[in-house]
Design brief:
The protein has about 450 residues and is of the alpha/beta class. It folds into 3 domains: about 130 residues, Rossmann fold, CATH 3.40.50.12160; about 240 residues, Alpha-Beta Horseshoe (pyruvate-formate lyase- activating enzyme), CATH 3.80.30.20; about 60 residues, Nucleic acid-binding proteins (OB fold (Dihydrolipoamide Acetyltransferase, E2P)). It has 14 helices and 19 strands.
Length: about 450
C-alpha cells in the first residue's frame, strides 16, 4: 500500500514579504513530496510564518500555539504525528524563548533559514530533536530555493531584503538583517518562471525595494528602474508593481520609469510616517517633509493619474498636538488614494522604546481616529473619481455574488464585476458604475456595448 502524501499547513502573518516567503516555503516542501492543505487538522507539518512589526505580535503567536496544541493532541489520539514550526520574524526575535514557553513547538527558524526546513523536519521527526536556527546564514537562501511552481495570477517576488536605515521604531534590521539585493539574472529568471506559470502581474518586494542595487553579469550595480525595464520585456507579464519604498532612495530614473514603462502600474506606496520634521529626526528617517513633497510633485509631473499610498505612525514619543497637526496638514495637501496608519507601539530592542517622553495611549488613539477619518474620506473621494471611467481590470477570483469575479484596477483597487468564469485571468475593460471606500463596482456589459457602438 503506497504511503500517504504528507500535508503542509502554513499560516502567514503580516507583510507581503512574508507571503512571498510562505509561497517559497510551499515550493521547498513540494520538492520533498509535501502537498499544501487549508485544514490544519489534516497537516503533518504546521508552520506559523510570523511578523514582529506590531505590538503583541509574539503573544498572538503563543495564543495560536495554544489552539494548535489541542489539534496536535487530537491527531496523536489517532496515531498521527504533527511537527510544529514557528518561522519568520517573531522566531528570529524570540529564538529559544519560544521552545521554553511553548513545548509543543519542534522547530524555530528565522526568515533567512526556511530553505533548510526539510532537513530540520527530518531531524525533528527521526531524532526527536528540537531545533532553533536564528542565524543569518552566509549561504543565501535564494541560492538554495527551487524554481517557481505555484500558479498565481498576481505574484510576489522579493528582490531586496533587510534594511540599513535603522529607524528608531523598527525591528527589521534585527530580524531581517542588513540590506541585500539579489543579482539581476536571478530575479529575471524567477520572473520568467512566474510568467510561465501564468502570472500576469508581479509585485517586486523589499524592505527598501527602491534601494535595490543588484549586480548584472558584469558585476555592476543595477537600479530598480533598470530591473523593472528588464522584467517588462518578459512575454506574458502584463503588470509590474513594487513596494515598499523609502523617500531617500526615490531616484530620478525610478520616477521617470512611471512615465516610460507602460507595464509599470500608476501606483506608488511611499511612507512618510510623520508630517513633523522634528518627529522624523527622532525616528531617524533621515529625510524632511519638503524633500518628500518634492518627490511626490515630480512623480505627479510624469504620471498625473498616479495613485499615492503611504504609512503613517501617530503618537510617536515626543509628538505634540502641533506635530500631529503637521501630519494632518500633509495628508490634506497630498490627498492619498489609500494609506496604512497606526499608533506607535514600542518594539523591544529599538531605540524609541527607551525614550521617556511616551505619548499617552488615549491621546494617540484619539489622534489615530482623527487621521483615519480624513484618510477614509480621501480614499472614498479617489474611488468616486473613477465612476464613469473605463479601467483595465485583471480578473483574479470569484466574488461573493453568483457569477461575479473580482480583480484589481491599475490603481490597486478591488473591482467587482459580473463576468463569465472563463474570463478569469484576463485583463478586461470594465466600466466603473459605483464605489465604496474599499472597492469599485463595474459593468462588463456596458464596456462591451461601448466598444460595439
Amino acid at each position: 500500500m503506497p504511503r500517504a502524501v504528507k500535508k503542509l499547513f502554513v499560516k502567514t502573518y503580516g507583510c507581503q514579504m512574508n507571503q512571498y516567503d510562505s509561497d517559497r516555503l510551499f515550493e521547498v516542501m513540494a520538492e520533498i513530496g509535501f502537498e499544501s492543505t487549508d485544514e490544519m487538522a489534516k497537516a503533518d507539518v504546521v508552520v506559523l510564518n510570523t511578523c514582529h512589526i506590531r505590538e503583541k505580535a509574539a503573544e498572538k503567536v503563543y495564543s495560536d500555539l495554544g489552539r494548535i496544541k489541542l489539534i496536535r493532541n487530537k491527531r496523536l489520539q489517532k496515531g498521527e504525528e504533527t511537527t510544529i514550526v514557528v518561522a519568520g520574524c517573531v522566531a528570529q526575535a524570540e529564538g529559544r524563548e519560544i521552545l521554553a514557553r511553548a513545548p509543543v513547538v519542534n522547530i524555530v527558524i528565522g526568515p533567512q533559514s526556511f530553505h533548510r526546513l526539510p532537513d530540520y523536519i527530518f531531524s525533528a521527526e527521526q531524532h526527536k530533536q528540537r531545533i532553533v536556527d536564528t542565524d543569518f546564514p552566509t549561504d543565501l537562501k535564494f541560492e538554495h530555493l527551487p524554481g517557481r511552481s505555484i500558479k498565481k495570477l498576481s505574484a510576489f517576488l522579493t528582490v531586496q531584503e533587510g534594511c540599513d536605515k535603522f529607524c528608531t521604531f523598527c525591528v527589521v534590521p534585527y530580524t531581517r538583517g542588513g540590506e541585500y539585493s539579489r543579482p539581476l539574472k536571478e530575479i529575471v529568471r524567477e520572473a520568467k518562471e512566474l510568467a510561465q506559470q501564468g502570472s500576469k502581474e508581479i509585485t517586486l518586494l523589499g524592505q527598501n525595494v527602491n534601494a535595490y542595487h543588484g549586480a548584472n553579469k558584469k558585476g555592476q550595480p543595477v537600479s530598480l528602474a533598470r530591473l523593472i525595464k528588464k522584467i517588462a520585456k518578459i512575454d506574458g507579464l502584463e503588470r509590474i508593481r513594487y513596494t515598499t519604498s523609502h523617500p531617500n532612495d526615490m531616484s530620478t530614473d525610478l520616477i521617470e520609469a512611471h512615465r516610460d514603462i507602460e507595464k509599470l502600474m500608476p501606483y506608488l506606496h511611499l511612507p512618510f510616517q510623520s508630517g513633523s520634521d522634528k518627529i522624523l529626526k527622532a525616528m531617524n528617517r533621515d529625510h524632511q517633509i519638503d524633500k518628500y513633497l518634492d518627490i511626490l510633485g515630480r512623480v505627479r509631473d510624469v504620471r498625473p493619474d498616479i495613485a499615492l499610498s503611504t504609512d503613517i505612525i501617530v503618537g510617536f514619543p515626543g509628538e505634540t498636538d502641533q506635530d500631529f497637526e503637521a501630519t494632518m496638514q500633509l495628508v490634506r495637501d497630498v490627498k492619498y488614494a489609500q494609506a496604512y496608519s497606526f499608533t506607535y507601539s514600542p518594539r523591544p530592542g529599538t531605540t524609541a522604546a527607551s525614550i521617556e517622553d511616551q505619548v499617552e495611549k488615549h491621546v494617540a488613539s484619539e489622534r489615530l481616529q482623527q487621521l483615519q477619518a480624513l484618510l477614509k474620506e480621501q480614499q472614498l473621494e479617489f474611488n468616486r473619481a473613477q465612476i464613469g471611467k473605463k479601467l483595465p481590470v485583471l480578473l483574479e477570483k470569484p466574488g461573493r455574488e453568483p457569477g461575479q469575479l473580482v480583480g484589481r484596477s491599475p490603481y490597486l483597487q478591488l473591482v467587482h464585476v459580473i463576468a463569465p468564469d472563463e474570463m478569469r485571468g484576463q485583463i478586461v475593460e470594465v466600466d466603473i458604475v459605483d464605489t465604496t471606500r474599499n472597492s469599485l463596482a463595474g459593468s462588463l456589459k456596458r464596456a462591451q456595448n461601448k466598444e460595439l457602438a
